[in-house]
Amino acid sequence: MRLRSFLVGSILTLSYVGASVSAQDALPPSEASPDNSYFAPPRPTAKPAVGDSEVSFSLSEMATGEMATLGGGPSCDGDAVCEDDLCCGGGGFCETVSIVEGLSLKNFLGMRCCDRWEVGGWTQIGYHNNNQPLSQAYNDLLSFNDLPDNANLHQQWFYLGRVADAECGWDWGARADIIYGTDGQKTQAFGNPDAGVRGFGSFDASMDHGIYGWAIPQLYGEVAYNDLSVKIGHFFTIIGYEVVPSPGNFFYSRSYTMFNSEPFTHTGALATYSGYEDLTLYGGWVLGWDTGFDQLNSGNAFLGGITAQCTDDVSLAYATCYGNFGWRDGGSNDSYCHSIVLSWNINDCWTYVAQSDLVSTTNDGVSEFDTIGLNNYLFYKWTERISIGGRHEWWKADGVSFNAVTGGMNIRVCDNLIFRPEIRQDWAPGIGLDESTAGVDMVLTY
Question: CB 214: neighbour CB atoms within 10 A?
Fold first, then answer.
């Protein structure tokens, strides 16, 4: 049964063709190397690297898992690191926001030369004119973009970590993240006992007040030896393509698949082995889905996967969770989910990503939650500072099909300041859903 589900999901992912996007020809495409481009090709290992203590977020690699340290700030020898003349006094709109260019919390704290430690964060403020459709029926503050017609502080995020550098032997690392905002409740350990009841729930499950809340999405230690590393604690999932941290996504809004068919966090242990050329292996044990140092319904599951760099331009990732998911399946020991992500860097300007997720959970032998999602993304780097993207999604849950098409832009005002306007159309004939949503957000990293 599980093998058949995997094969079906794989075939659908690789055969489904969608997402298109149009762009004006007013400006020529950039001739910059992909390694130095503003919009670097997404890789299917986005989720593992988002929580990796080896890296910090950078908007110069939006929607990728291989985040790099923010550029634009002073280096240890005092020289300014500037990408082009726009932010170095050579003219252009970036002069008007030079106060934020190169803004770095690490430098502010006097840690700019502490190579082994990473400290930083970001601020995301957004506005949209409609609820994310699935949240309208519940109004429980547990869906992304569920507070329309207001300028919301979605994420005020800070992180601190130590890099585990084990190229020549043993080393250790650690990572802690904290978030405040309207996304706080979405990132808490809502898979813990008594979560969702104000004033109850362990770890961070009830750290909220009104529409705003706190969360600790990551808190883990890491040990590493040569090509093997092991995280132990509370960390982001490796399943899927889109992520909770806003700088890791191209779009302001999230997909149905990401929100409904994937865990956000786990608590347990996860090993990563990168000793094979063009191949990375993941494997570990977790307390089900979205738990924080606690266990609900005897949650107990395997988490693992594999990432392959098939060619210089094509990569493929498979990630799975199998066992007892805890809150999602009511304590079954035979639940299964997977995500398959194919990324193709077509050329210096175009990137295509295909994703399929499948979830099959049972409770006392009875099917409880079955979904399948097919997502297509197409990205075009118009200039060094402007990228255009399209996303088409079909997501089916318990016999009802949801469809969504999103078109948006990433406008990078400076290395660490970006605006993401988008228009989204959702429809689901089975429930009479047909609506459009316009939104825009700003993300400032430091």
Answer: 18
